[in-house]
Structure prediction request, 303 residues.
Amino acid sequence: MFRKLAVLFLIIFLGSSGFVYAGDSHSWDELKDRLVADGFNREYVDTVFSVSSLDYDSAMMARKMRVLLKRRFEPPAKKVAREKEFDERYVGPIMLAGGYSYLREHYTLLQEIDKEYGVAPSVLVALLLVETKLGFTLGDAPAFSNLANMAASPDPLKFFDKLGYEKLEEKDLVWLKKRTKKKADWAYRELSALLKFSSENSIVPTEIPGSPYGAFGICQFMPSTAIHYAVDGDKDGRIDLFSREDALFSMASFLKRHGWKNSLSKKKKLKVIYRYNHSMVYARTIYEVSRQLEKIRSTFGPE
Prediction:
């Protein structure tokens, strides 16, 4: 009974006209029309959205907003405790052994990249280790589907019953509505970038596996990042971020264009790595893994 009252209050508070609720038949028409209005070919858009595996699921946005709500309500002391120095999982012997093995196996390629972009082999391997465990964990859901579902969920009424919060104060409801709309707009921009990147590189967008929030490839670039920083490392005329050469060259391209130099101080290196993933724990983890790999390399080679 209380859940029904909470949802009813949301309808009154947020406004209910024109919304499609989770569980109702859903049409992608509004999203498709928006893409066409922004310059995409109608036939291309219709074809992409016609795949049978593309089903609307508001749980995509619910999952993201549930995380953000949890952080919003988290006590300050717990937030401080969560900000550890670095993620120790990646500096254990097994992870470092895997990273060092990868560095040895691909050292010639990594040196070539270092010569062109000025990014040390250990840094690229550290990024690859943390992002996808050296390319072995790529996400198990289509990036396109994840982004399309988030872009099509600009209002919390579509997923409020999935949040797990039966009672929210008015200020939290206001925050939830604004934050959801902002995240949906972000997802739309990334969806547009994914379509553009796919079209330019002859990729079927709906078949790209990705993270829950749309990052893809062994380097885990967001689509907008791929548009601006990805490069054709193997010079075959297209960019494939599931290709080792393209992904590694693209990671180096990203770092260099954000100011990376191997001679930078630790503080400045952390600032550049932070641009790859906006978390200082993440940045410090990459730095520490890279440092450990460099120590191993200097002891056991290659030179």
